[in-house]
Amino acid sequence: MVDEYAFKNGGRPVRRINCRLGELSAMTRALYFCFESASKGSRCEGAELVIEEVPLSVFCHTCNAVKTPSGRFNFRCPDCGFPTPKVVTGREMQLTSIELEAADENAARTHLSADYPTQQTSCQ
Who wins on pLDDT, 60 or 105? Predict the structure, then answer.
């Protein structure tokens, strides 16, 4: 998606990729690990990858409130102990913005910051 966006906007190299990944997406470590090798030869090569990790939160029907469970795989309300299977946050996989290198290389560290339509996946 990022390489395609850069191509459609002048083919300039990508400077920074900003995304949001939920705690349950299990992608943060993998993406950091493979980004350098996966981006080689693309417009993303050498880009900075910035990941905002979104913590897990669940809705407790008993307390009628959003809660933060005590552990990543503990789907019980930390206050009342009842099961809380409704995940509110923590599954996000969103590309939030892409920054391209400036068209004029002599420009003083200017860049295009473009919001890219976010995509959220559901990991059920």
Answer: 60
